[in-house]
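Cross-check.
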Amino acid sequence: MSYRIDAAEIRRALELFMQPGQVTELRVLNCKIDNEYRPGTYSGYFDREHIDDLIEACQQIRSASACYFIPNAVKPELLGRTFNRARIIKDKDPTTSDHDILERRWLLIDVDAVRPAGISATLAEKAATEGMVTAIDYWLWERGFPAGIIGDSGNGAHLMVPISLPADDKGFCQRMLNGLAKEFNNGTTKVDISVFNAARIWKLPGTLVCKGDNAPAIGREWRMAKVLCVCKEAQHAGAD
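Predicted model, tokenized:
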């Protein structure tokens, strides 16, 4: 299976997640592109007004393990590294750090199926993760949080809850994830408590997630990340 993207889904997602003028980093791991002999990390900075350029950069991918972006607001100065374009970077080239984030606009919640490392999830495992993020979304809403955006991460489920906090949130996101894990983790699905940092990379909807071999015969095949559910409140978070 060759690497696939869904340009319309990428555009829809980034228009939801990014505010006007916001900058993000595209980061693609184990990536091979046209005219490059060796795979590497493919990275570039793009503002919301140049989503088409980001899509064009994704169209150059010939193989990759996964494609990511940064949902929180990146300092616009970083456009000077790669101005609305992407390239295979060298080992010492910088990528976005927590110090490069202007503010936190999302509480990021990642739910994964409990399974051996290095393999894709089955449909049943993915369905269990989607059930958990739906329950978390409602649990948070009952406690005064805005409803979030639910996404398919390819092998699990994502929940992005709109927030407005400094990049240094004094541990708020980390405490939230630890609390959610304590409340919801079970033997089959779990909240990833490691995704609390401000510069966290996030699966880019509309791109293929390639963990392990593509093995549809045993139900463990490569699948596309995508947006699943957007409430009206969250729909306007990227347009403020």
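Residues 7-239 form a domain with the DNA primase, PRIM domain fold (CATH 3.90.920). The mean pLDDT is 95. Passed to J.P. for a second look.
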